Structures are given as C-alpha cells and as structure tokens.
Amino acid sequence: MNRMVDDQESTAPQALGQRRSVRPRRVDATDQAILTALSRDARQSVSSIAEQLHLSRANTYERIARLRSSGVLRGYTAVIDPRAAGLETAAYVFVTLKQDDWEVLRRALADDPAVRHLALVGGQYDAVLLVRTSTVEELRRVIFERIQSLNCVQATQTALIFDDHTQQVHMSPDDDGP
C-alpha cells in the first residue's frame, strides 16, 4: 500500500488549535462516492456503503481507512442545532492583530468552547471568530475578558447574529474533491 502521509501522523479528528501537515492524495471516483455516502449519513455501516456502491466490504473498509490515515476523512460528527442546544446568542468577532500574531491567537482560543470557528482572513481584519454562548452576558464576558484581554489583539469589532442558517455540506459526485 502506498502511504501518502508520515507514519507519525494521527488519524484522530483535529481540535481547533491543532494543525496537521498532510500531503495531498488523489481522490478517485470510488473514494468520492464513499465520501458522498458518508457525508449524507456517517452512521451507516461499511457493509451498507459497500452495498450501495457495489463494492466488496473489504475494499470499502480499506478505502475508508486510507481516507482517514491520509487526512482526507478527518472524523465523524453530529450536526447540532446551536439554539436548540442552548447557545442562543451568537456573534462574529472581527479581530485586528498585532504583527504576525495569528498563531498566538489560534493557540490562545483553541480550547475556548464559545469560539466555534476561527479563521485567518485577508482584508480589513486579520481574523474572524464565530462565538456562540447561552446569554448576552456570557458573550460580553468572552469578548471583553477573554478575547480583548489577549496581548496579541489590537482591536475587535462585533456583529451580533440575529438569525442564521447553516447549510449542510454534502459532497457530491460532481465535486472536484478536497
């Protein structure tokens, strides 16, 4: 088997603060079909996927294992409605950083459960954070006491989210792959 990743790499899902160096691997049409099936229902069995795609169970299992070990398939997750789970307050926090402090910000907020997404961006701001909390008071605490208190943060601007829609992303056979 031709491995496309270093032997030391973990196949565990990554936390927000972790980085993973993965060499790109070619995803063929069969791999794409497996990813499509898993993106629609990650709870289905390997046997079910194999049957749907007219593959052997062993081949399907091997391909899923290879997709995991190469970093293409990073894990399985539940889709949770944040409001139904009690996270009724949300905001995008736009952050201006001191020079070259992206990694400092990323590490500092990696384990903060209120920070649901953190992205380095180009343009007027350096980073955008999606923050979800149960109350406005908690949101205020996260922004003023947690984010703005970091030495790497020069300034923030907050946009409250009044309503949102999260599109469920499913791979389709027409996608070009990762």
TrEMBL record:
Q: What InterPro entries does the annotation carry?
A: AsnC-type_HTH_dom, Dimeric_a/b-barrel, Tscrpt_reg_AsnC-like, Tscrpt_reg_AsnC/Lrp_C, WH-like_DNA-bd_sf, WH_DNA-bd_sf
One GO CC term on file: cytosol
Q: Name one GO molecular function term.
A: sequence-specific DNA binding
Q: Where is the signal peptide?
A: none
Q: Where is this region: Disordered?
A: 1-25
Q: Which UniProt keywords apply?
A: DNA-binding, Transcription, Transcription regulation
Cited SMART domains:
HTH_ASNC
Q: Which residues form the HTH asnC-type domain?
A: 27-88
Q: What's this protein's name?
A: DNA-binding Lrp family transcriptional regulator
The record ties this protein, via Pfam families, to: AsnC_trans_reg (PF01037), HTH_AsnC-type (PF13404)
Give an example GO biological process: response to amino acid
